[in-house]
Amino acid sequence: MKTARHPDDLVAMIPDGAVLMIGGFLGVGSPHRLIQGLVSAGRKGLTLIANDTHHPGLGIGKLIDAGVVKRLIASHIGTNPETQRQMTAGELEIELVPQGTLAERIRAGGYGLGGVLTKTGVGTIVEKGKPTIEIDGETWLVEKPLRADFALISARQADYFGNLTYELTAQNFNPVMAMAAATVIVEADEIVAVGMIPPDSVRTPGILVDYLLEHPA
Amino acid sequence: MKTARHPDDLVAMIPDGAVLMIGGFLGVGSPHRLIQGLVSAGRKGLTLIANDTHHPGLGIGKLIDAGVVKRLIASHIGTNPETQRQMTAGELEIELVPQGTLAERIRAGGYGLGGVLTKTGVGTIVEKGKPTIEIDGETWLVEKPLRADFALISARQADYFGNLTYELTAQNFNPVMAMAAATVIVEADEIVAVGMIPPDSVRTPGILVDYLLEHPA
Amino acid sequence: MSMNAKELIARRVANEVRPDSLVNLGIGLPTLVVSYIPRGAPVLLVTENGLIGVGPRPPHGMENPDLIDAGGGFIMAIPGAASLDSTATFGLIRGGHVDLTVLGGLQVDARGRLANWMIPGRLVPGMGGAMDLVTGAKRVIVAMIHTAKGTPKIVEECALPLTSVRPVSLVVTEMAVIEPTAEGLVLRERAPGVSVADVVGATAAKLIIPPTVPEFALS
Amino acid sequence: MSMNAKELIARRVANEVRPDSLVNLGIGLPTLVVSYIPRGAPVLLVTENGLIGVGPRPPHGMENPDLIDAGGGFIMAIPGAASLDSTATFGLIRGGHVDLTVLGGLQVDARGRLANWMIPGRLVPGMGGAMDLVTGAKRVIVAMIHTAKGTPKIVEECALPLTSVRPVSLVVTEMAVIEPTAEGLVLRERAPGVSVADVVGATAAKLIIPPTVPEFALS
Question: Which residue in B172, B186, C135, D74 has a CA-CA distance of 20 to 30 Å to C199?
Answer without folding.
Answer: C135
